[in-house]
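Batch 3, record 17
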Amino acid sequence: MKTLTILNYQWKDLVRGKWIFGYALIYLLITDALIRFGGAGPKALLSISNVMLLLIPLVGMIYGALYLYQSREFTELLLAQPLNRKTLFWGLYGGLALPLSAAFILGTIVPMLYNGMLFGDQLMSILLLLGLGLILTLLFTGIGFWLGLAFFEDRIKGFGICPGWLAILSCII
Amino acid sequence: MIELRGLKKNFGQLTVLDDLDLEIPSGQATGIVGPNGSGKTTMIKSILGLVKPTEGEVKIDGELVNDKWEYREKIGYMPQVARYPENMTVEELFRFIKNIRGDQPSSEEELIKHFGLESELKKRMRTLSGGNRQKVGAVLSMMFNPEILIFDEPTAGLDPRSSVQFKKKMVELKEEGKTIMLTTHIMSEIEELADYLIFIVEGKIKYHGPMDALLNEHKEQRLEGAVAKMMEEEAA
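Prediction for the assembled complex:
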């Protein structure tokens, strides 16, 4: 229950910060542009998935770590309250990863909707793409969050490891 | 009572707390002094569970509290640096902390009035001055009527009027029999507010006892002189 309270506060804080709308808008513009240039076929889906594979880990990981560093003093104040650490960190993580996931899904699905892609025979591929984006957001925000926690006292190290992880990932891809 | 037994904390090669043994009886106001980087904040954070000790035990009212969280219901903490979510209003922050604790504060209204925060309640945190943020921290630490109050350099960002308001409140809390721990570099504040003193240098306790005994021991009239003498002895 308290996890939901923290999640709710995080959600409101992100919405007030307004940048989350900017993040959704980036996906909307990219998806719209790719559909316009490549048509509403499998080519567009492939291009969207390429963009997604690069952008989601980058934003998720950096924002996951950055959030903890930015709100370090407040997190410490929350930790000084009679609150289970797990409850607090799940609340903070969920409050960060879920809005990021929602921004990706909304930003990608809206252009697909008005271009009629959702009603064709590609529905399964689209759902797979969105599901993959969701998993990547949850995973990489979690990694960023974990790095932020593991190097809570040393933000340069924590923040520096994020691009390192991405470089490894790029090589694998 | 707060008890620290063989408390050690290392950050890599650096030993910040070195085998601390300490007993702070209930209902007393204790001032913690020491040079910068001597381990005052780390000691406070160990009691709060914000720092995990490398070795040793922390007991509150006889109960071992290492890795527990329920005991924090008894504690009110005012940190040295007051930074809160910038988009939250003061009112929302108070509500959020109330929801998290699942507790109804007993003296919220009175504290808001005492610190003159009525006109700031609807304002967002980013528009608040450093002093007002500090006052918000003071209200948060006291509003649930905790048995133990820990203040980490509480008057650092306060103007003289607010500082006097804070000290008045602290005297009231002392009279109510609360256990208070206070770190500050302002010796007159310790003289005014604390009965006992802990002097800590490089993670070791060099003095723990009543203030009068320390003054007599060093043949000084003011605490500042006695603490300066102790620091000189340490440096020699």
